[in-house]
């Protein structure tokens, strides 16, 4: 039996009323209640984002500016301890680090194993698996540590009925969930966690109705980042944002680069979290003094203010360089490595600081006055003639050039004067690899009075290839550090082939970067 006409009219009116009802608002109170849980002592800045891809590209530029290179890392399987997500978290991390190293080539990430035992076994055998194999310095461990569903949930409904003809109803619901990711960096030498190099972040996921309307909210450095979630991805998209944020944070902390600038913090001294971060970095390095001095020796040499060793020891040249850079930053002109200088250095736009015409040159200490052969002492030689052209010696013990297949190769590098030395290998497959300086010895400077042995105590090996195919080692010596002036394609990552590079291309790059003032030495490796 069809319902009477007046019932049909009422039904249509009811549907229209329910469809347009504004009293069933559930999203706003859910957002407000969730925000109340996370609310701090004051309101936080809000930023709408589509992801952290811009921060990854910013980090790539930052790593280039700070001269970061040869950071090699393993990453194990990043497990989901909640057992509620089905996403490739480790693959997301690999993609994030890859995007962060597009131009800088600063970080190389290797996926390996599902447990620590596998990693330890790999590290123990790495040096015997292939010639020129090198051990990564760091390992990333962590997990999806939290996924609290329906942290806050609101539901409202309304119905309309005329018995026995009509029963209509509508319901709306909104819920928030919290997802957390914890990652840490360990050293592969002892599998110990690096103090302070951790990332612990969470994201609030808001869903309304059947999940078609979703948002994600991240919080870092007092800033709230909000992102709309795609219908097809939802939780996985929110997790990807966490992983990208973690990648920026971990690499920034590991390399002590001001990563917060890539997350929108313009004044780190005015932000309590970044101020504490800088405080921790400074005092951790200053506790031994050597690390702090070496940090600035490296940075000021890269920026053309210093030309000397990176040994963590004060000398007149680094004193002069510190004084000059302090003045460039608007600080007092004095050789003082204090907190104010460190904070100003991390907050500075170094591209706007003009390089000096000449860096502060390091001069090795003279012999003790009065000692035999010292200037002014009896029998001392006449003043030295003008410096001879730079020369470089590359040799093996007993002048050996032929090696059995698989035999270890040891080299001695000795410039005729203090110089910066860079060594490349063209292997049996004609691939070109940079193996010095490297992740184990980052300073390219070699003193004439102290030859360098490769590999020595460094955790890699040189050996004759098992095919018996001749290989070529080429080393370049320059009077100043030219690494920052080389095309990034000729720097690459240590112990990794340079795509498309030849020794001729490398040689041309060094000739241009050094202005022609360089020494070049070839060492031919042949099979017995």
Automatic annotation (TrEMBL):
It holds the Pfam family DUF4384. Residues 403-480 form the DUF4384 domain. Transmembrane segments: none annotated. InterPro entries: DUF4384, PGBD-like_sf. Residues 1-19 form the signal peptide. Keywords: Signal. It comes from the Bacteria. This is DUF4384 domain-containing protein. It comes from Variovorax humicola.
């Amino acid at each position: 039996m069809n319902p009477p006409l007046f019932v049909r009219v009422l039904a249509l009116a009811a549907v229209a009323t329910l469809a347009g009802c504004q009293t069933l608002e559930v999203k706003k109170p859910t957002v407000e209640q969730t925000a109340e849980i996370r609310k701090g002592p004051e309101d936080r800045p809000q930023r709408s984002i589509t992801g952290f891809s811009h921060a990854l590209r910013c980090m790539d530029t930052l790593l280039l500016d700070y001269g970061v290179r040869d950071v090699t890392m393993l990453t194990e399987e990043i497990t989901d301890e909640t057992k509620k997500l089905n996403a490739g978290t480790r693959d997301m991390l690999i993609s994030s680090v890859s995007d962060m190293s597009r131009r800088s080539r600063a970080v190389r990430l290797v996926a390996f194993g599902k447990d620590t035992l596998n990693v330890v076994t790999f590290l123990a055998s790495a040096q015997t698996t292939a010639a020129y194999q090198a051990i990564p310095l760091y390992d990333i461990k962590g997990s999806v540590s939290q996924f609290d569903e329906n942290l806050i949930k609101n539901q409202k409904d309304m119905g309309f009925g005329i018995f026995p003809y009509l029963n209509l109803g509508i319901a709306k619901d909104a819920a928030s969930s919290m997802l957390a990711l914890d990652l840490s960096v360990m050293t592969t030498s002892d599998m110990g966690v690096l103090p302070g190099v951790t990332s612990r972040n969470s994201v609030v996921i808001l869903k309304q109705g059947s999940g078609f309307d979703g948002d994600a909210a991240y919080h870092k450095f007092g800033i709230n980042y909000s992102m709309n979630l795609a219908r097809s991805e939802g939780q996985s998209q929110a997790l990807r944002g966490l992983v990208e944020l973690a990648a920026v944070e971990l690499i920034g902390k590991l390399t002590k680069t001001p990563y917060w600038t890539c997350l929108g913090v313009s004044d780190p001294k005015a932000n309590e979290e970044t101020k504490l971060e800088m405080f921790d970095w400074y005092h951790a390095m200053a506790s031994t003094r050597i690390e702090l001095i070496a940090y600035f020796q490296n940075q000021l040499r890269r920026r053309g203010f210093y030309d000397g060793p990176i040994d963590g020891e004060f000398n007149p040249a680094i004193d002069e360089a510190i004084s000059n850079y302090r003045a460039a930053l608007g600080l007092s002109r004095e050789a003082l490595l204090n907190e104010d200088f460190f904070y100003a250095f991390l907050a500075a736009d170094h591209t706007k600081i003009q390089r000096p015409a000449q860096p502060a040159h390091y001069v090795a200490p003279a012999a003790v006055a009065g000692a035999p052969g010292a200037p002014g002492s009896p029998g001392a030689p006449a003043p030295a003639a003008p410096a001879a052209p730079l020369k470089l010696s590359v040799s093996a013990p007993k002048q050996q050039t032929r090696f059995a297949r698989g035999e270890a190769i040891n080299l001695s590098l000795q410039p005729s004067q203090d110089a910066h030395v860079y060594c490349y290998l063209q292997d049996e497959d004609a691939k070109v690899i940079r193996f010095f300086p490297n992740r184990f010895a980052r300073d390219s400077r070699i003193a004439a009075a102290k030859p360098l042995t490769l590999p020595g105590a460094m955790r890699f090996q040189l050996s004759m290839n098992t095919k018996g195919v001749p290989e070529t080692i080429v080393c370049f010596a320059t009077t100043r550090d030219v690494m920052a002036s080389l095309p990034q394609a000729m720097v690459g990552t240590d112990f990794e082939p340079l795509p498309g590079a030849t020794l001729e291309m490398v040689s041309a790059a060094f000739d241009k970067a050094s202005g022609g003032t360089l020494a070049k030495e070839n060492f031919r490796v042949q099979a017995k």
